[in-house]
Amino acid sequence: MSRNKLTVSAVAVKDLAQELQRRGVLAPAQMSADSAAEAVAAGAEMHELRQAESALRALWTEARNNSADDSLGLKIGLQVNPAARGLLARWIAHCATLGEALTTFIDHIQLLNPAERWQLLPAGDEVEIRFEFLLPYPQIAVERSMAAMLAWGAVLGGEVFGGEVTAGTENASRLLPVRKAELARTGPADSQLFYQTFGPGIRFTGAPGGVNRLWLDAALLQHPLPAADVYLRDLLAARAQQLPVAGILSAGAQANSAGQTATKAPLSLRVLALLEQDIHKFSQIQAVCAAVHLSRSTLFRRLKAEHTSFTELLNQQRLRLARSPQAQGLNATELADLLGFCDSSSCYKFMRRCLL
Q1: How far is residue 11's CA from residue 26's CA, in Å, rounded to a whole number?
Q2: How would you classify the pairing of strands 7-9 and 50-52?
Q3: What is the largest distance, in Å, between two alpha-carbon atoms of the chain?
Q4: pLDDT in tens, 216-232
Q5: From CA 349, how far away is CA 326, in angstroms rounded?
Q6: What is the mean pLDDT of residues 273-294?
Q7: Where are the strands (E) in 160-251, listed by range?
Q8: Which residues, 6+ apart, have CB-to-CB distance to 45 below 8 Å?
Q9: DSSP letters of 136-184?
Q10: Which of 54, 104, 119 is nearest to 260 (CA)?
Q11: Are 180 and 201 within 8 A, CB to CB?
Q12: Cα angle vertex 212, ends 8, 6, to 5°?
């Protein structure tokens, strides 16, 4: 698909344009009166509308050219407005855990912007997240995505990360905690907001066009979302599949077959998300294969390539549950049920083997 055929969420374009106007970076005359505004006037649902990807990229270019604020991308990313949600944001809000929300977002990021790509790379007790655009967006757009992920993660996590966030606030103290971060840029003149957002482990590599990434504690992905609703999640997922989205960049625009595969979250994290969702159902390998549309042998081979196995992931999730507050005070039968065992004897053998 050629670049000029790519479309993005109209909500993303509208919100960015209004935010740039509010900050005095974009004059009202620079906002294009496009088909999205006309469709809204005609009664169309804004959160399902699409606009040309070039419109969003042009706004970011204007922002870079018209502002000397080195932290503009962070400030926009930290600007939380729970009422402004497109279809994808509404969908992930009803996922069961932060991990499921994040993998769902990455797997379907084309609903927001097919020119943007995030990658999750498991690394022991950490998860590395890489951020990039497959078309020429300025660095402030990447930094906006990084800050927005931390801010929205805290919003979705609810009371776990500090409770309700007031609409329209910039609050770098209410974010998912970051272990370390790398930004492909030189250090800003005023780095205070960068350190508030990404923590003391931030490093400026001074390499434009390089890797932008951060590392989170893998345990964060286990946190449940207070607003989770399986029924609404599945309705929104089904609706998303019906949208005529111009979704993936062609080989000529850098997203070759390898790149398209990379937009998917690692298989190991997708399997973990399934186990978090329903450990009874997905402790059965057949159910996992059906959910990820892979044969048993292919599933095993791809997990091996990620230096893990289905048994290891299942045991990992069971250990997390066994050590969680949910497990405290349970009798043998209740604990076996929590960990997805059919009987307490199997649960006892597992606990003895893995915990003693």
Answers
A1: 17
A2: antiparallel
A3: 71
A4: 998 888 888 888 888 88
A5: 20
A6: 87
A7: 169-170, 180-183, 202-204, 212-217
A8: none
A9: ---HHHHHHHHHHHHHHHHHHHGGGGTSPPPTTEE-TTSS---SEEEES
A10: 119
A11: yes
A12: 15
Token output for 171? 């609050």
CA–CA separation, 147 vs 35, rounded Å?
30
Look at 121 and 56; give whichever has higher pLDDT.
56
Taking the C-alpha atoms of residue 279 and residue 272, their distance in angstroms, rounded to an integer, is 9
pLDDT tens for 74-108 read 999 998 776 667 788 888 989 988 988 998 898 88
Alpha carbons 109 and 142: distance in angstroms, whole number: 14
* Cβ-contact 355, 322 below 8 angstroms: yes
Nearest to 209 by CA among 132, 119, 109: 132
| Phi-psi category of residue 191: left, alpha or beta, with phi > 0 → left and psi -120 to 50 → alpha | alpha
Q: Can you say how many angstroms the Cα of residue 336 is from the centroid of all Cα atoms in its chain?
A: 32
105 is written with which tokens? 């977002």
Provide the mean pLDDT of the chain: 80
How many other CB atoms are found less than 10 A from the CB of residue 249?
25
pTM over 0.70: no
Read off the tokens for 170.
């910039």
- For residue 115, what are the CA distances in angstroms to 6, 91, 103, 159, 242? 8, 20, 17, 33, 20
Burial degree of 221 (CB within 10 A; 0-12, 13-18, 19+): buried
Rounded distance between C-alpha atoms, residue 114 and residue 133, angstroms: 9
The mean pLDDT value for 143-164 works out to 78
As a whole number of angstroms, the distance between CA 129 and CA 135 comes to 19
Contacts of 330 (CB under 8 A, 6+ apart): 338
One-letter identity of residue 252: G
Q: Which amino acid is at 276?
A: E
| DSSP per-residue string spanning 65-115 | HH---TTHHHHHHTEE-TT---HHHHHHTTSSBHHHHHHHHHHTGGGT-TT
Q: How many residues does the chain have?
A: 356
